[in-house]
Structure formats: C-alpha cells, structure tokens
Design goal:
Blueprint: E1 14-15, E2 21-25, E3 30-33, H1 35-40, H2 47-59, E4 69-73, E5 79-82, H3 85-99, E6 103-107, E7 110-114
Antiparallel strand pairs: 1-2, 2-3, 4-5, 4-6, 6-7
Length: 117
C-alpha cells in the first residue's frame, strides 16, 4: 500500500529488480519478497496487507513501518489492532454500544475517544 494511506504507513514496501514488492522487519532481521502473496494467495494490491497481517499472527508484531490503528477499551482488557481506520472505528463503536464502555481509537500519536450512547 502506498505510504500515507489510511491503511498503513508502509515506507519499507519497495520493489526489487524483478518488480516484486519487498517487506523488511528489523526485529526479525529479515526481508521478504511478496511472491507468495501475489502468486499463491492472489492477493493482488492487497499483498502487503496480507503479509503484514500474517506476520502479526505468526510473530506478534507488524513488519517495519506499519503503524496499526488501535482500539482499546478504557474499562476492560478488550482491544484490537487494524490496518485501516474504518474497522477500528467499527470495532470501537460496536464495543461501546454493547458494553457501554469508552474506547480510544488511535493511530500513531493521534487518538479519539468513542463513547457509548
């Protein structure tokens, strides 16, 4: 995904000589070409997003320069991370509506409070 989109801040998504996008992770000290996501998963323009989500599931962290949207309940331990604002806000609004808990939705240094109605 291009840098500056609402979904991620993916400055490390580059292309190699073969024109295949690559992703790096300093924590893992590795770099990956997204051939699998493009050829096997047929993720197309969502290849980077698919890789980032898979990386999180398997390592517990996102690759370099991915800043997830977070939704954190202020009254219970519930919360989640998302690659786009819309699902983060949807999760926060649903949680607030069902539990009457306030939820902070954040991305980087910015955050907003979603309160129950």
């Amino acid at each position: 995904m291009p840098s500056g989109s609402d979904d991620t801040d993916s400055g490390d998504e580059t292309t190699s000589e073969g024109n295949t996008p690559t992703v790096t992770c300093r924590r893992c000290d590795r770099e990956w070409e997204l051939n699998y996501e493009l050829d096997e998963l047929r993720a197309g323009n969502r290849a980077f997003e698919q890789f980032a989500l898979d990386h999180l599931r398997h390592t517990g962290h996102f690759p370099d320069d991915v800043t997830p949207w977070t939704a954190d309940c202020q009254q219970c331990p519930s919360g989640d991370q998302f690659l786009a604002e819309r699902p983060a806000r949807r999760w926060a609004e649903t949680h607030a509506r069902h539990t009457r808990h306030s939820v902070v939705v954040g991305h980087g240094d910015e955050s907003t409070l979603v309160e129950s109605e």
